Give the backbone structure.
Amino acid sequence: MIPVTVLTGFLGSGKTTLLAHLLKSPTLARTAVIINEFGEIGVDHDLVEAGEESFVQLETGCLCCSIRGDLEATMADLLARRAAGTVPPFERFVIETSGLADPAPILNAVMSEAARGSGLALANIVTTVDAVTGLATLAREPQSVRQVAVADRLVVTKSDIAGLSSELRGRVTAINPRAEVIQASHGDVDPARLFAETVGADAAARENEAWTAIGSSHVHAHGDEIQCFAIRRDRPISAVAVTLLLEALADHFGSGLLRLKGIVAIAEHLERPAVIHGVQHVFHAPVWLDRWPGDDHSTRLVLIGRGLSVTWVQRLITALEAEIAEISVGE
């Protein structure tokens, strides 16, 4: 499985500085870096000059490409070149988005390519937030709120200038209470910490505190109508009910569902939980963990988006469970 990290953040929030620093680290060796919309790139002058669909191999062994076209086609092309041995055998993708990009289409592209059996898996989403102008940007630019809302890790940049204020921390936590907040000075941050995957038993264990903190709460990001809420179910859910639930969420909320992520107790496989996540109408194939990450074996789902209803989702799960149970009794 090839993990994919999406690096997003609003214009001027320090994505390029962060990426330039990271690309010097041996940790990112054997990484394919895709920079979307190269007009705002400052990573490498030669990369900017090289043009569309060009590839540059950096000293660390990273492979960089800049694109203006179709992301799915670019990923598929890189995978084909990897299989043919015409590019270095990279083991990770990092995708840097445009500062004005809504992250949802990017995530959709990754998950669609993964659904084709390419061997890709969305590992995590990293969002940069400017310590100096972050509060003003979040108040003024709805796109920046969406970028924060879907993140697994929030990197507060330029902390050497302004530090992380209590107001900014409170704002990003209100938008996304489950994301880890990391401070970076001059783009300096531990790559291993930044790109640690958010799937697997160890990663799930790290997120348990976030699940507990959110609980069954409903968090509203004022000004952009983005909600974040968590649902916990102590009783296992059948595999059929989970499938129907995901289909119903996609149909009912559509593009309003910015992100769903969860660890699920499947009735047919009680010892092996499933990690699920989706964006809008696209859902990744479940990742089965070898074991539960802790003593808590409950199902926990986090939904982030616009126009969501925690009551509707809870009632839907209950109705699906009842329907599956009735069918089982009839058989």
Notes: The radius of gyration is 20 Å. The chain has two domains: 2-195, 202-330. The CA atoms of residues 205 and 294 lie 6 Å apart.
